[in-house]
Amino acid sequence: MATTEPNLSGYDDANSVERIMEIAQANTDVDEIIHVVEDNADAIFTWNYDKGERVKLDKLYEKAKTSQWNATTDLDWSTEVDPYEVLDLQAELQLNPEFEADPTSPIYNWGDKEWREFSYQSTKWRLSQFMHGEQGALLCTAKIVETVPWIDAKYYAATQTIDEARHVEVFARYIDEKLEGEYPINPHLRLLLDDIINDSDWDMTYLGMQIMVEGLALAAFGFMHDFTAEPLLKKLLRYVMSDEARHVAFGVLSLQEVYQDMTLAEIQYRQEFAFEAALRMRDRFLQQEVWEHMGVDTREMTKRLLEAPEEAKVFQRMLFTKIVPNCRKLGLLDAGEGWLREKFTEIGVIEFEHMPDTGAEFLDYDIDEGAGEG
Ligand SMILES: [Fe+2]
Ligand SMILES: [Fe+2]
Question: What is the pLDDT of residues 223-240, one digit of tens each?
Answer without folding.
Answer: 899 999 999 999 999 999
